[in-house]
C-alpha cells in the first residue's frame, strides 16, 4: 500500500511540474501578446531574360515571391492577387502556368486580359518563397517592353499583393523588369515599387451585434462601387426579401444576366474578411482574395446562430454571414445563403475568379443611403429618414425626416401616411410626408376589401417597391393614439387612427416615400 501511495505522490508531483511549466508558458505568451502586433512583409519580382529576344520566338518570364518575412499578426501568407501589365502591341502571351509555390495548382490561376495578366492564388498556409507564375511570351515588334506589377496604390481592388488568411493585404514590395524585343531600344531601369497595402491595424475582436432582417437600400438602389453613392448612372436592384437589406449583387442591372437575383451572377464579398477588417465592403469583381475571405469564415465554423455569422461588423444592417454565405447548387450555380459557410462556398467564389467574373459597377452595400426623397427623386446630402424594423423588410422611414421625428427608429408610430389613392385603384402611388383625410380613406378601402395577411390584396406589390401592399396600409392600434407595426389585418380602427393623425395635423417637412428605386 505504501509503495502505491508513493507512486501516486510521484505522479502528482510530475503533473504539478507539468502544470507549472504550462502556466509559465502561458504567462510568457500572454506577456508577449501584450506587445504590438506586427505585420508580415513580402517582395514579388518579375524575372525576365536579359538578352534580346527574336521576334516570333517563345521565351519565359517568371513572377517570384522572392521574400516573405512573417509578422506576429500575419505568421504566414494565404495567397495573392496578381496584375502584371505588358504592351500587347509588342508582346503576345502564348501560355501561362503555375510556378509551383501555390499548392495544389488548382488553387492558382492567371488569365490574359491585355494589357494585363490577372490572377492569383488562395487557400494556402505558407511561409515559402518561390515561383508564382510562369508566362510564355513572344515578341511581335522591336522595342524595350516594361513588365510592370500594378500595385494596390494604382489599383486598390485588383492590384498585386500578398494577403493573409483573412485576405488582409500584406505590405508587398514589387520589383518590375523589362524585355528587349528584336533590335530593342533604350533599356528602362527596373523599378522597385514599395506598395505597403492599405492594411488595417489588427484590432481586438469586436463585440458582435446580431442583426435581424434589415430593410433594403433606399435612394433608388444606386450604383456606388468605386466611390460614394451616385444617382443617374445605372441601377443594381437585385433583391431577395427573405434577406432584407441584401441589395444588388455588385453588378449593374444593365450587365446582369438576372437582375432580380442577388446571388447567382457575381460572388463578391467584403475584402479583407470583416473578421480582420471590420470596415470592408464588397466591390464589383471577384478575385482570389474574395475566395480567401470566405475561407476565413469557413476556418472559424461560421454558421447561422454563431456570433461571427450574426455580427454586423461593417454596420451596414446586414448579417456578416449573409455577405459571405451561399448555397452551391447543381452545376456550380450559386444560390442564397443556406446558413453554413463552407469550403464549397469558397471554391465557388474561386471558380468565378477563374472565370473572370466582374462588372463595371454595382452596389457595394455601404449603406449610407436612407435618404430624404419625398417630393421628388431620391437625393443625397439632405436629411435622413431611417426608421426601420427588421421584421418588415422594405419598410424604411416613415415619411418624416429623423430630425423632426420623436421616434426616428420607429417607422410606425408618428406618421400614418400611406399611398394615395389606394393602390387597388391606382397601382403607381406612394406615400408622402403629410396625413390627410384621403390617407384614412385609402386605408378604409383595404378594410372594405377584407385585406388580411395571406389574401392576394394584402400580399401583392402593385407599386413595385418590393413591399407588401398590406404592410403599407396596416397598423396595430395600441391605444391612446399609439400605433405599432402591421398585425396582419387592416381594420376600420386602422382607418380611424389615420383620420386621428390628420385631425392633429400630423405632417413633416420631408421624408422617405418608399419608392425603393
Q: State the secondary-structure class.
A: alpha+beta
Q: Which blocks of ≥5 consecutive residues have pLDDT under 50?
A: 11-34, 190-220
SS summary, helix count: 9
Please give the number of β-strands.
Answer: 18
> Largest sheet at a glance?
8 strands, mixed
Shape by Cα distribution: elongated
Task: Give an overview in words.
It is a single chain. The chain is of the alpha+beta class and 517 residues long. It is 19% helix and 18% strand. The protein contains nine helices and 18 strands. A hairpin with a 5-residue loop joins strand 10 and strand 11 (169-170). The radius of gyration is 29 Å and the shape is elongated. Mean pLDDT is 82; it is low at 11-34 and 190-220.
List the helices and strands and how they pair.
Layout: H1 2-33, E1 41-47, E2 52-53, E3 58-69, E4 79-85, E5 91-98, E6 108-113, E7 116-121, E8 130-139, E9 143-149, E10 161-163, E11 169-170, E12 172-175, E13 177-181, E14 192-195, H2 288-299, H3 307-310, H4 320-324, E15 327-328, E16 334-335, H5 343-354, H6 437-448, H7 456-459, H8 469-473, E17 476-479, E18 482-484, H9 492-503
Parallel strand pairs: 1-12, 2-13
Antiparallel strand pairs: 1-3, 3-8, 4-7, 4-9, 4-10, 5-8, 6-7, 9-13, 10-11, 12-14, 15-16, 17-18
Helix pairs in contact: 2-5, 6-9
Amino acid at each position: 500500500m505504501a509503495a502505491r501511495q508513493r507512486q501516486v505522490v510521484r505522479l502528482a508531483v510530475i503533473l504539478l511540474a507539468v502544470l507549472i511549466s504550462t502556466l509559465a508558458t502561458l504567462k510568457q505568451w500572454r506577456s508577449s501578446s501584450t506587445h504590438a502586433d506586427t505585420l508580415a512583409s513580402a517582395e514579388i519580382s518579375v524575372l525576365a531574360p536579359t538578352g534580346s529576344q527574336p521576334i516570333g520566338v517563345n521565351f519565359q518570364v517568371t513572377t517570384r515571391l522572392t521574400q516573405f518575412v512573417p509578422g506576429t499578426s500575419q505568421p504566414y501568407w494565404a495567397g495573392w492577387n496578381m496584375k502584371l501589365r505588358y504592351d500587347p502591341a509588342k508582346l503576345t502571351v502564348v501560355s501561362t502556368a503555375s510556378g509551383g509555390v501555390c499548392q495544389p495548382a488548382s488553387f492558382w490561376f492567371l488569365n490574359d486580359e491585355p494589357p494585363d495578366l490577372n490572377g492569383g492564388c488562395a487557400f494556402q498556409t505558407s511561409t515559402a518563397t518561390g515561383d508564382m507564375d510562369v508566362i510564355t511570351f513572344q515578341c511581335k515588334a522591336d522595342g524595350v517592353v516594361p513588365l510592370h506589377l500594378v500595385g494596390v496604390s494604382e489599383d486598390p481592388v485588383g492590384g498585386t499583393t500578398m494577403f493573409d488568411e483573412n485576405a488582409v493585404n500584406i505590405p508587398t514590395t514589387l520589383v518590375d523588369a523589362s524585355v528587349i524585343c528584336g533590335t530593342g531600344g533604350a533599356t528602362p531601369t527596373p523599378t522597385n515599387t514599395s506598395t505597403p497595402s492599405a492594411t488595417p491595424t489588427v484590432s481586438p475582436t469586436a463585440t458582435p451585434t446580431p442583426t435581424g432582417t434589415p430593410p433594403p437600400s433606399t435612394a433608388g438602389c444606386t450604383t456606388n462601387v468605386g466611390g460614394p453613392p451616385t444617382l443617374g448612372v445605372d441601377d443594381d436592384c437585385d433583391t431577395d426579401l427573405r434577406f432584407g437589406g441584401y441589395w444588388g449583387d455588385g453588378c449593374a442591372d444593365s450587365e446582369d444576366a438576372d437582375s432580380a437575383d442577388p446571388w447567382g451572377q457575381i460572388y463578391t464579398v467584403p475584402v479583407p474578411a470583416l473578421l480582420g477588417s471590420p470596415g470592408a465592403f464588397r466591390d464589383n469583381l471577384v478575385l482570389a482574395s474574395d475566395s480567401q475571405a470566405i475561407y476565413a469564415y469557413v476556418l472559424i465554423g461560421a454558421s447561422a446562430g454563431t456570433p461571427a455569422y450574426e455580427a454586423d461588423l461593417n454596420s451596414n444592417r446586414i448579417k456578416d454571414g449573409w455577405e459571405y454565405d451561399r448555397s452551391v447548387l447543381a452545376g456550380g450555380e450559386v444560390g442564397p445563403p443556406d446558413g453554413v459557410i463552407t469550403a464549397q462556398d469558397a471554391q465557388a467564389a474561386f471558380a468565378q475568379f477563374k472565370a473572370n467574373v466582374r462588372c463595371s459597377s454595382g452596389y457595394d452595400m455601404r449603406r449610407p443611403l436612407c435618404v430624404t426623397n419625398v417630393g421628388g427623386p431620391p437625393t443625397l446630402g439632405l436629411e435622413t429618414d431611417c426608421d426601420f424594423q427588421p421584421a418588415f423588410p422594405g419598410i424604411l422611414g416613415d415619411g418624416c425626416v429623423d430630425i423632426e421625428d420623436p421616434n426616428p427608429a420607429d417607422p410606425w408610430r408618428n406618421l400614418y401616411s400611406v399611398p394615395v389613392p389606394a393602390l387597388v385603384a391606382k397601382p403607381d402611388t406612394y406615400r408622402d410626408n403629410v396625413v390627410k383625410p384621403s390617407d384614412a380613406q385609402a386605408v378604409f378601402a383595404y378594410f372594405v376589401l377584407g385585406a388580411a395577411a395571406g389574401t392576394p390584396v394584402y400580399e401583392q406589390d402593385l407599386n413595385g417597391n418590393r413591399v407588401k401592399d398590406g404592410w403599407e396600409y396596416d397598423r396595430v392600434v395600441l391605444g391612446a393614439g399609439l400605433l405599432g407595426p402591421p398585425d396582419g389585418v387592416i381594420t376600420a380602427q386602422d382607418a380611424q387612427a389615420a383620420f386621428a393623425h390628420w385631425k392633429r395635423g400630423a405632417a413633416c417637412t420631408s421624408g422617405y416615400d418608399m419608392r425603393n428605386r
